[in-house]
Structures are given as C-alpha cells and as structure tokens.
Amino acid sequence: MSGSLRLAGRVLRQVETPVADLPVFLCPGILRFPSLPTLRTQERLPHRFQVSHQRHITSVTSIPTTASPKILAPLLEKLPQQCPGCGALSQTADQVAPGFYTPTRRSIRQYLEGGSSSRRFAEDEIVKAALENAASIEPGMSVGGFSIPIKDTAPPVCDRCHNLKHHEIGASIYHPSIQSIQDTIFESPYKYNHVYHVIDAADFPMSLVPGLHKLLHLTPQRSLNRRSKTGRFYHGKKTEVSFIITRSDLLAPMKTQVDSMMPYLRSVLRDALGRSGKDVRLGNIRCVSARQAWWTKELKEEIWQRGGGGWMVGKVNVGKSRLFHDIFPKGRSEKVKLLSKKSSTPITIKWENRVEGEQQNTSWSPVTSNGTEQVEVAEDSIEAEASAGSEVGEEFSETEALATSETTGGDHKLSDTLDTSSLLPPAPPETDYPAMPLVSSLPGTTASPIRLSFGNGRGELIDLPGLSRGDLEHYVQPQLRPNLVMKTRIAPSQQVMKPGQSIILGGFIRITPTTPDVMIMAYAFTPIHSHLTATEKAIGTQMHTRESNVENISLPETAEKIASAGTFHLKWDVTRERTGPITAREAVNIKPERLPYRVLATDILIEGCGWVELVAQVRKKPGEMTRLEGRRDRRQDESEEWDSEPMDEFEEIDPSWPAVEVFSPEGRFIASRRPMNAWLHIASKPNKGKLQGRPRKSMKGAKKAEKRRKAEA
After folding, report:
1. Biggest alpha carbon distance in the chain?
2. Residue 490 CA: distances (Å) to CA of 311, 364, 485, 553, 611
3. Cβ–Cβ contacts within 10 Å for residue 470, how many?
4. 384-407 in b/e burial notation, b at 16+ Cβ within 10 A?
5. Whole-angstrom Cα distance, residue 586 to residue 592?
6. Which of 266, 318, 323, 493 has the most CB atoms at less than 10 Å from its CB?
7. 300-303 contacts at long range (C-beta below 8 A, 24 or more positions apart)
8. How do residues 115-148 score in pLDDT, each as one tens digit?
9. What is the value of pTM for the model shown?
C-alpha cells in the first residue's frame, strides 16, 4: 500500500509541475524549491481510483484476465506463434498447458505495445526541445543531432516458462515416444540431415536410445572395412548421426583428463550398442561441456559447415537445450559477412534484368561506386539473391534452398501457415541472435520442436522434446526432485563397506555386499547424500520403519515398491591403475601377474542421477582367476585394453568375483558398466600454486662491483 501511495504521489507531483524550459527529471535539484507542490499538499486518492501514468504523457489500460474470446483473438495474432522457451504453440485458452500467455503480464504488454516506443519518443522530443531552446539563447552553442536507439523487444515466453525461469515452479509435459520423433524427422524439408544423439555423462551410457539407427532410418555406422560405404539415402534423404556426450565436466576436473578418457568412452558405448557396435569404427563421438566450453567451438563449426537439418535427439535432462545455446551459429548470416568485408577497390555486384525480345536475361555486373551506394546496392543484391533461392558455395540443391527460404521468410500469420496436422511447426523468421530455448532442471521442459535457422537458409538446428528417462523423480518428494540432477562435479569421500554394512543413497537406494570377508571401497558420485551404516538400519530407513537422522527423500508409498535390481559383480581388473608405483613402468615395474592379489572394480549407475564406484582387493589363490590373468596378458596398449574385455552378456561368472546387490524402487533405474576410475582423476588434480613470474636477477659479484665503483669515485 505504501509503494502505491509513493507512486501516486510521484505522478501527481509531475502532473502539477509547471512547464519549464528544462524538464524537471533532467534537473532534480528544482524539486527542493518550496514553491513546487509536494506529496503532503496533495489530496491522497483511494487505491482503487489511482491511475498509473507514464510521465503524464500516456496511460496504460490493463486488460482484464476474463476477457472474451473476441478481445483475445487479435492479441493472439500479435503474439509469437511459438513460445521461444519451450516451443509450445501460443494459446490463451488453457492456463495450465504450455504456451499460455496472460495478457496482463508486463512483458507481454510491452511486447504488444512495441516496447513502450511512444514513451521513449515523447521523452526524446522533450529533451530535444530543451536543447534547442538552450542553443537559441547562446548563439555559439552547437547542439548537434540527438536520438535514442530503439531496441527491438524480445519475444516473451509463456507463463509456464516464466514460472520455471524465475520461480522454479512448473510441471513436466507428457514425454513423446520414439515413433513421434521419427515422424517429426521424416517431415524435414532438407535433403541432408544430421542427428546429434545427445547422451548424458552423469549416467553414461544409460541415456542412450537403443535401436536409433533402425527407427530413424539413419545411415549405418561405417565398419572397420576400408571399403565400407560412407552414406546411404532413404526416400531421397540422407540422415547421419553423431554421438554427443554432454556435461563432460562432471567426469574430471580438467579437459586433458577428459580427453584421455575417449578410448574408455568409446569402448563403453560399443558395449552399450551390443552386436551392432562390435565391428564399427565409432569415429563420430564428441565429448563436450557447455559449462566449461570444452569442444563446443569445434562442434559449432561442424554444424555451420555441414548445414542442412540438424536434429538434437535425446532423453530428458541430458543437456540438449543448454548445449543448444553454445553450438548454434549466431550472427553468421551471409548479409553481415558481405557488408563487413573491407576492400581497397570497392566493387558492387549489381543485379540487372535485361529484356531481349521475349526472353528475360538476368546477369551480374560489377559497378564501382562510393561507400554509401555500395552498401545500398549490396543490400539490394543480397535480397534479390535470397529471394531467388540460390547461394554461392551452397551444398544443397536449388529446390531445397528455395523450400527453406519459403519456410523461414515472409510474414507468418497464425491462420495462414499453421498446419495442425504437421508435427513439425513452421520455422520463425531468421535473425542473427534469436531467443534461445529455456534451460531448466525440470524433466521435459521443451514441449514442441524449436526451429532456428542460420546462414540465410543455409541450415537449421532443431531442439526436439526429450524422451522418457525412467521417471525416477516420481518416487521422490516433489520439493526434493531437483536434488536428483547432478549440476556440478562431485568430489566424494571414500567409504569402506565391511561385512554386515550397506550404503544407502538418499534414504531409498541401498547397496549391500553379498560376498563375505571382503571389504569394498565405495565412492558415490551422486548429488544425493550417501550414508554408510549397518544393513539392518539401512533396511529400516529405506522402508520408513525406523526413525533416523538420515533423510529419506522418497515418498512414503515408495517403501512398498522397493525391490532388488539384481546382483552386480566386480569383474573388471584395475590392478595396474590402483597399485600406483608398484606396477608403474617408471617405478618398481612389477607385473600384476606376480602380485599375490588383484584389485577388481565396477561402476553402479543410477539413471539420471550419477554412479557409485566400487573397488575391492581380492587375495589370489593358486588355480583361481586364471581367466582374468589371461585376459590381462593380451592387453598391449590403451586402445587394445578395453577391446579385450568380453562383450557376451551371458559370460561365465568367476566365483572369486565380489558382488553387491542393489535395491531400488520396483527394481529399476540401476545398471553397471566397466569402471571409469574417476576417483583417481580427482585425487590427482594438480593444485594451483603461485604464478611463476620473472626470475630474480642474479646478485653474484654485485657487492664487489659496488665497492669498485665507490673506490673509483
């Protein structure tokens, strides 16, 4: 109430102020004179009769929220066709659904009014009149030109995106199926398409979409045969795929450490692909980080050079929208490139139409002119070139470029171009710096495909809605669901599980060893809290039957759905990595086969959350683990190290392998992979010491030289 009175008093003070040559808001010191009216001398009006004025020039009339459809229909035509944040079609009918716009919101009012340009224009005129009056008094004063640059108002986001961005409140959409993604990509207007399969590094490779090549009719992966084909067309279109591992900064603190993991990531992805990935090259893998800007510039250049249709496919919360911000080629239109070129002899390419008889002859002719005419004619030539649908050095055919220009350009009214039977929405007009999709930790933020063009029709980058990732958040309390998403790199502490103990994650996921007389070291790379306790206490906490200081973030009804997710064996040998200088070639250099023990490890994956690294040291007895020794003998280098592991799902289980049993809601959301040894990368992170500056000058013989100089003086 006090804020409204202050605002009303300020407005009344401006209304009652006598007109002067110099506006009051340019000289606040005038307000100190007692002759001017103040707030105390004004009659305070009730709050319901106050009217909000803008510099006593214009008044804004608020639109009621219960406006009739006749009033909302013209407003809907002025709004953007899609919400730039989530891609949902604009609507004013359902307040809960994505794409709903409230006409009374301030950002929407400013967008409909053109960014309050009338207010800026009025203030501009007042200041200009005051300066001209001051120049008329002083004959020698030169005022010059005065203008305020008017910025284009960014298109507003819908109410759902507004609440997600500012209040972190919102509901997930219904996740699309892989068939709907397939139908959407089939509607591509481009002949050459490229699918960027985005995979999250937090639970790699659980976010991999199985069978993506067969479902989307993608070009098969190139085999190891040097005569393998490089591409294949399906229904007149060529669609290739690249695997993009996002959020790689969660794996290691330094870029060089992540780069050294590429052989490991390639081998894990090969295992996840199954038999189809056994004999393929897998040279189309990128490990990027939008947060640290690792390899995003190179990926952006690939997208620009490749052109065509770029489709970002993946599951929810894998970082598609965040990566979209960094890899989209902004400000690279051909018009900007041509106008920014500097030449000593300016040459303008002029578009000429000559009519000879009944035929129309079109030609290009260079004309030398000054700088102003050059820019104007260059703009006209570029517009004529874009309308003709042909570009110099374009990879696509003329038909495809023409279809792209027709799709991206021109006036797009809701009633004319919107096809409700199409899964692919119309492309908005191309701009150098368009509004980017909204980034949120809510699963399923993107509601509809978001199309953004670049390079004057050179290509598009489309952000597709995410596929379902298992819905682990449905078993967690609503206010604690954002805690499941790993946002920064985790530096865990070492926890040693002795016989009879278990590790419980978030109070509802339990890891219990099943091998007696073996101690297992655990490192939880998860955003939820891990706690080591006795197995009986862990069961009571997990089932909500025991009062404990350990917080259980799951819903009470989740206890009835807890089931075993399976038994996982620590079957990968990491002796050489874990023993340090004992087996290092530059140190003691003892072969692992000569040691009386072996170090085995595995990674337990939690879908959409992270992983837990488990390591155990097992005593080697005569006649045991022979298979593991032979497997280690065949390893020659780092590239062959991961390929030598068996890929058979039904391989023989060694009885000496330690094992753990994992309990989760409905026995889901759990998997295992070969160990990454992420704990070793964190432990070996170099400390940032003092900056090495310029070395100190040597003082050898300085005292003798000083004495000799004084003696000579």
Report:
1. 108
2. 31, 61, 12, 19, 10
3. 17
4. ebbeebebeebebeeebbbbbbeb
5. 15
6. 318
7. 300/326, 300/327, 300/328, 300/329, 303/327, 303/328, 303/329, 303/459, 303/461
8. 544 455 677 778 778 877 877 776 666 665 555 5
9. 0.71
